[in-house]
């Protein structure tokens, strides 16, 4: 899938937003901010527009809700040319979240969230019920609904901003660098919450960011734009990291593409090795031969139910009859199927045995991961 | 200045309570009319400036030029056109409120954060509705501050309209001056100042009522039954944890 062929894999009903030869030249500018952009955004997906400053990503976003009028080209939302309906009606049907949250300082949190339902003329009870529902969805304490935004922290303001954008349940959400003004810890939290939220609400989200890691973490699909609004590549994060189309994309993705790919994969995706494993009841000689056979100087021990007990070094076996006589040392790096391979790698390089042991939810041994196993996944 | 007379003759004051009441009424009337009409004109000019930015310079320059004309001269200049009386007084008084009000309304509208405007546009406010529901409410503290200065200034100027046959408490001052009677001069001045201070305090209360968000540290609010109630003077807790 390349930029030129981007629309190919989606049938018309599954496309929420389509940009067609979209161009914007600001008055007095010598070069267009966005030039001839073709892009489709599948329904229910989060598409990240990423690029350096001046790449026109925010301009592109604002052309979708007509805060900026294109010089030429067309934006289709749900198959309808957005110029065919009044601007304010279009905007009421599209959620909009901006960097500084942009909450109305003179309205309480609850009234802020109720903005679009009020514009749409919902009745009081319906609005009240919807505001309460959104407060719960965004994990906002209902006691906050009566306060003014100035009493809230940056992270909470941003949550209210998202709640306000979702209030009338629009199918499309535009988010313009929503988390760039909050500190990194809160940002990571808000990102996790957005992922959880998206699993519940399935909106088509257009997300503008200059942070490629944020895009990789959140997006189903990333569109990388170059200065002047030129689309360099649009792909899933994994595919883009695997095969960047040109040097610009590769540079933008950074020199740790392999590690970033590991962050997108979980232990479930990896092929596990069997590893040097013996039962507690095994004799010391069995343990020695297992080590020799697989080329390790330690052996993992599990009980009769396959629960991982720990490991024993070769030297400790001297003088012992069975493995069960010894107290195994616990593995420092134990992972489950949902652990990302990046976290597994971290475990591998920081543990004495240089492996990550994979167990299921009940602690039963599944297999072992080494650096070689991970490398195979990345180069495959 | 007058040997036989005491500085204040309290018996004269007691005998003229009817005059005090009628002059107070006239003072209130002139002030309310002047500030009210001035506010309407200034608001119209501010909204024009909001729509066509280029209009603000000339409008502000016009108001500033009018503001700089000495009041006594303006009353005299208006005489051939409107004669003595209410119209003459009002035209002059309104003229002096315009600059203060226009500047404060425009400053208030300019102070609306760009991201708040953008959010409002993005939510789907029509332009007029955004001005009404977002821009103007957020400009309220600045607008009320302008009204406060304009009102206090007008109350002072109303006394001068005694020259064209109105004057409110200025009637006392004018008469006192012509009769060389200190009691009346002092009475007119003191009542005028007391009225100005009263209005000043009312505007402070009005600002807290109209813009409770702007004063988070305890504020006067409209209660459930419309009565003024003092909100608790407590510092709102900042919600720190994001968890």
Briefly summarize what is shown.
The complex is a heterodimer of chains A (380) and B (243). Chain A contains 14 helices and 16 strands.
Structure description:
The complex is a heterodimer of chains A (380) and B (243). With 380 residues, chain A is α/β, with parallel strands linked by helices. Chain A folds into 2 domains: 6-93 and 171-264, Rossmann fold (3-Layer(aba) Sandwich); 268-379, CBS-domain, CATH 3.10.580.10. Chain A contains 14 helices and 16 strands. Chain A has a 6-stranded mixed beta sheet, with helices on both faces. In chain A, helix 11 (257-264) packs across helix 13 (341-350). The two termini of chain A are 18 Å apart. Chain B has 243 residues and is mostly helical. Chain B has a single domain, classed as MetI-like fold, CATH 1.10.3720.10. Chain B contains 9 helices and 2 strands. Chain B has helices spanning 10-15, 17-51, 56-68, 71-82, 86-110, 114-123, 127-160, 170-179, 182-210, and strands at residues 220-222, 228-230. In chain B, strands 1-2 form a two-stranded antiparallel ribbon. In chain B, a hairpin with a 5-residue loop joins strand 1 and strand 2 (228-230). The longest helix of chain B is centred in the N-terminal third of the chain and has 35 residues, at 17-51. Residues 217-243 of chain B have low confidence and may be disordered. The A-B interface holds A 65, 67, 87-93, 96, 98-107, 115-116, 119, 141, 144, 147-148, 150-153, 155-156, 161, 164, 174, 185-186, 189 and B 113, 115-116, 118-126, 129, 134, 137-138, 140, 211-214, 216, 236-243.
Features:
heterodimer; A: 380 residues; alpha/beta; Rossmann fold; CBS-domain; six-stranded mixed sheet; four-stranded antiparallel sheet; 14 helices; B: 243 residues; mainly alpha; MetI-like fold; two-stranded antiparallel sheet; 9 helices; 72% helix; disordered C terminus
């Amino acid at each position: 899938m390349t930029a030129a062929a981007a629309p190919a894999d989606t049938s018309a009903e599954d496309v929420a937003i389509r940009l067609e030869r979209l161009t914007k030249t600001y008055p007095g500018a010598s070069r267009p901010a966005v030039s001839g952009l073709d892009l489709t955004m599948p329904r229910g997906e989060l598409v990240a527009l990423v690029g350096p400053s001046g790449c026109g990503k925010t301009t592109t976003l604002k052309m979708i809700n007509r805060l900026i009028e294109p010089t030429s080209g067309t934006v289709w939302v749900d198959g309808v040319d957005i110029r065919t309906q009044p601007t304010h009606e279009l905007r009421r049907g599209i959620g909009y979240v901006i960097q500084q949250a942009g909450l109305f300082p003179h309205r309480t949190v609850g009234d802020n969230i109720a903005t679009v339902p009020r514009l749409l003329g919902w009745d009081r009870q319906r609005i009240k019920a919807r505001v309460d529902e959104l407060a719960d969805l965004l994990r906002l304490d209902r006691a906050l609904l009566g306060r003014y935004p100035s009493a809230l922290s940056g992270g909470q303001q941003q949550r209210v901003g998202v709640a306000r954008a979702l209030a009338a349940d629009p199918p499309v959400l535009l988010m313009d660098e929503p988390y760039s003004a909050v500190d990194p810890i809160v940002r990571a939290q808000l990102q996790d919450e957005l992922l959880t939220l998206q699993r519940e609400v399935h909106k088509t989200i257009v997300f503008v960011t200059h942070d490629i890691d944020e895009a990789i973490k959140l997006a189903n699909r990333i569109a990388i734009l170059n200065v002047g609004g030129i689309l360099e590549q649009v792909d899933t994060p994994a595919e883009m990291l695997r095969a960047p189309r040109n040097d610009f994309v590769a540079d933008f993705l950074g020199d740790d593409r392999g590690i970033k790919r590991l962050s997108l994969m979980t232990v479930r995706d990896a092929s596990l090795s069997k590893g040097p494993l013996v039962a507690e009841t095994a004799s010391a000689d069995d343990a020695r031969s297992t080590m020799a056979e697989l080329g390790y100087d330690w052996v993992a021990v599990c009980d009769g139910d396959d629960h991982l007990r720990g490991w024993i070094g070769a030297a400790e076996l001297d003088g012992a009859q069975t493995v069960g006589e010894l107290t195994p040392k616990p593995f420092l790096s134990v992972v489950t199927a949902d652990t990302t391979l990046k976290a597994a790698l971290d475990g591998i390089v920081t543990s004495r045995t240089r492996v990550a042991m994979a167990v299921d939810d009940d602690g039963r041994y599944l297999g072992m991961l080494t650096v070689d196993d991970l490398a195979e996944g990345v180069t495959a | 200045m007058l040997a036989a007379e005491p500085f204040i003759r309290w018996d004269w004051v007691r005998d003229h309570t009817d005059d005090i009441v009628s002059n107070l009424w006239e003072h209130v009337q002139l002030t309310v009319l002047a500030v009210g009409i001035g506010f309407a004109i200034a608001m119209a000019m501010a909204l024009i400036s909001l729509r066509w930015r280029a209009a603000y310079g000339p409008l502000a320059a016009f108001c500033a030029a009018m503001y700089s004309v000495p009041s006594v001269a303006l009353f005299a200049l208006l005489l051939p056109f409107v004669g003595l009386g209410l119209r003459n007084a009002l035209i002059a008084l309104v003229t002096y409120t315009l600059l203060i009000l226009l500047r404060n309304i425009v400053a208030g509208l300019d102070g609306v954060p760009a991201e708040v405007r953008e959010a409002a546009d993005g939510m789907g406010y029509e332009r007029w509705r955004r001005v009404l529901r977002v821009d103007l409410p957020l400009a309220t503290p600045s607008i009320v501050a302008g009204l406060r200065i304009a009102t206090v200034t007008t109350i002072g100027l109303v006394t001068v309209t005694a020259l064209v046959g109105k004057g409110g408490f200025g009637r006392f001052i004018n008469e006192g001056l012509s009769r060389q009677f200190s009691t009346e001069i002092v009475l007119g001045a003191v009542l005028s100042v007391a009225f100005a201070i009263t209005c000043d305090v009312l505007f402070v209360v009005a600002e807290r009522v109209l813009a409770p968000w702007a004063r988070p540290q305890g504020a006067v609010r409209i209660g459930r039954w419309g009565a003024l109630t003092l909100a608790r003077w407590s510092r709102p807790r900042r919600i720190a944890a994001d968890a």
